Amino acid sequence: VKKKPKVTTGSKTSKPKIKKKSKKNSSPQTEDKGKLENDEDAEWMDLSLDLQPISAYMKNRDQMLEEMFKTIKGEKLRSMLPEVMKKCTFEELRTLCLDQLEVMSKKRIQHILTGEEMM
Prior knowledge:
This protein is an all-alpha fold. It has helices at residues 14-25, 28-38, 61-71, 74-80, 90-102, 106-114. Helix content is 53%, strand content 0%.
């Protein structure tokens, strides 16, 4: 007696199988590219970028601030802020930081970046 194979139509168990098959058919390069595009830190994975220390932007404080905000962003940035500043929008926070950064001397900024106390 031959057994007939079970055929399922529209069941929940068949949907994940379809998704798995589509992943297997895609190339590893396509999967990697998709993962990098979704990753918020994808630009850090590009080894062709010329990395500069924050102090390299001493002459352009606006660009310095942009680079600093690229390193810490989102919820991580919010969690580091004092309670009074957590309600600020990103633009307000950026403006406040730039105001402070523009009045600091190069020497003071260098000391802050190196973690040294200024005497």
